[in-house]
Each structure stands twice: as C-alpha cells, then as structure tokens.
TrEMBL record:
Transmembrane segments: none annotated. GO terms for cellular component: post-mRNA release spliceosomal complex; U2-type spliceosomal complex. PANTHER family: COILED-COIL DOMAIN-CONTAINING PROTEIN 12 (PTHR31551:SF1), PRE-MRNA-SPLICING FACTOR CWF18 (PTHR31551). It comes from the Eukaryota. It comes from Clathrus columnatus. This is Coiled-coil domain-containing protein 12.
C-alpha cells in the first residue's frame, strides 16, 4: 500500500515539473544546454540554409565516380562473357564423360579385382597340385560372393 502511494506522489511531482517546463517557469536547473540549430534567438526567426557550412569532405563526395566506374567494368565483363565462343563447350561430349566417370570408376575397380583373381588362379595352376587348384577355385567363389555383397551396398 505504501509503495502505491509513493509511486503516485512521484508521478504527481513529475507531472508538476513537466507543467512548469511547458509554462516556462522552470529554468535550466539540471544544467542541460539546449542547442538551437534552426532557430536564431537574437532575431527570433528561423535561420536560412547556408551551403558553406556543409563540410566538403563527405563519403558521398569520395565515392562519387566509383559507382559509374564499377557499372562500366561490369558491363564490359558481361559483354566478354556473352561471346559465343565462350558459351559453347570446347568438347562436344564433355557432359557425357562427366556422367560416365562414376560408372567407369566402379567398373575399373571390378576389372582390377577380376584380374587379381585370374592371376591367383594361374599361379595356383602352375604349382600343379590339384588340391591347391580346388582351394583356389573355392577362394575365387568366395571372392565373387564378397563382390556381390559389396555391390549391393
């Protein structure tokens, strides 16, 4: 209850100070310096615009010609890029090669694996023992099963 009363008193004081400021009763008690940029207190009239007051070293003045220069360079680049020789591919079948690279890489791996198995079989056959040849064929069948499993993945 006491806090509500305190808030009400504080609000009333603020309202009174605002009313005094409006009426001109209160001076610069707080030490606030009011700048009057467009109003001349001596003549009690508005000041006229004076272009000599504006600083000449501004960002707009520094980058004035940059936009036109950049646009001109961009147009030159676009004209060079639109040249028909630059649009056409150097080789007619570049897209076919790009699409086939993945498939060829997979086939290359399979061919190297099959070459290795054939070499193993020949080495085993040169040793001359039939038991080893049967073991080599069994190993070859196991390799094929492993390849099928890896291809499914």
């Amino acid at each position: 209850m006491a806090s509500l009363e305190e808030e009400a008193k504080a609000r009333k004081e603020r309202l009174l100070t605002l009313r005094r400021r409006k009426a001109g009763e209160e001076g610069n008690e707080e030490g606030i310096l009011i700048k009057q940029r467009n109003f001349d207190p001596e003549t009690r009239a508005l000041r006229k615009f004076d272009p000599s007051i504006i600083p000449q070293d501004t960002v707009e003045n520094n980058v004035k010609g940059e936009a036109e220069r950049i646009l001109a360079e961009d147009e030159e680049r676009q004209q060079q890029e639109l040249d028909l020789l630059n649009i056409a591919p150097k080789r007619a079948n570049w897209d076919l090669k790009r699409e086939m690279e993945k498939k060829l890489a997979r086939l290359e791996r399979k061919t190297t694996e099959s070459i290795h198995t054939l070499i193993r079989q020949r080495i085993m056959a040169q040793k001359g023992s039939e038991g080893d040849l049967v073991a080599a064929l069994n190993a070859h069948q196991k390799d094929q099963e492993i390849e099928e499993i890896s291809d499914e993945e």
